[in-house]
């Protein structure tokens, strides 16, 4: 039994490295379906698969749903994505040899090749955007950020040593742009929650004191209770435009 456990652990570690290698080869991203397929022989539980995801994310790998799976998206995002993919289908796909020549020319700074390369990479932007979906930013916003990074990135390939590096370089730029957008959105949401919490705190304390006194209370009276500061009250008044039900707004 002990030998069996050791063998299973060794296989798990081997598959973990295989998963990391595959994700890096795919531009630093992998889907949950792909992870489950790799570890299918071990029949991992959900908690174990989550540990695998945690390991990959610690190595800067993006883990998401299978690219092209639209079921998890809201209706309006599905409609946008369907329409957008129809538009991209009009872009002819280049053969490997022609695409390599385009990459080389783009690295040399040729504007036409850079434009051609951007068009060829637009479907990759959609694939990457789908991996970041469901984190508070719409698929349309993610694609927009990715396309901006792509257009900028194709002009900055001169430092690369070979065309084989191009897709990985552009993929990293696209992912960074989406991560920055999500981070900015999360920061905005966190700030909104902090302001909401402050207003609720001041309103609650004003309600409690008003109930004791049987009337609205002034900011000075509320600050005198010591549970919220004059600065907090002033900020809550500013955020609500003075519309706190139990607070009789007067200059502090």
Question: Key terms for this structure?
Answer:
252 residues; two-stranded parallel ribbon; 68% helix; mainly alpha
Commentary on this structure:
- This protein is an all-alpha fold.
- The protein is 68% helix and 2% strand.
- The chain is built from ten helices and two strands; from the N terminus they run H-E-H-H-E-H-H-H-H-H-H-H.
- It has a two-stranded parallel sheet with strand order 1-2.
- Helix 7 crosses helix 8 and helix 8 crosses helix 10.
- The protein is extended.
- The mean pLDDT is 86.
Number of strands: 2
- Total helices: the number is 10
Strand content: under 5%
From the alpha carbons, calculate the radius of gyration and give it in angstroms: 27 Å
Largest sheet: 2 strands, parallel
Shape descriptor reads: extended
What is the succession of H and E elements? Answer: HEHHEHHHHHHH
Unreliable stretches (pLDDT < 50, length at least 5) are: none
Mean pLDDT, all residues = 86
Class by SSE composition: mainly alpha
Strand order of the largest sheet: 1-2
Helix content range: 55-70%
Distance between the termini: 74 Å
Write the layout of secondary structure elements.
Elements: H1 2-25, E1 29-31, H2 32-38, H3 46-58, E2 62-64, H4 75-88, H5 96-107, H6 111-132, H7 139-153, H8 166-213, H9 219-224, H10 230-240
Parallel strand pairs: 1-2
Helix pairs in contact: 5-6, 6-7, 6-8, 7-8, 8-10
Brief overview:
With 252 residues, the protein is mainly alpha-helical. The protein has 10 helices and 2 strands, in the order αβααβααααααα.
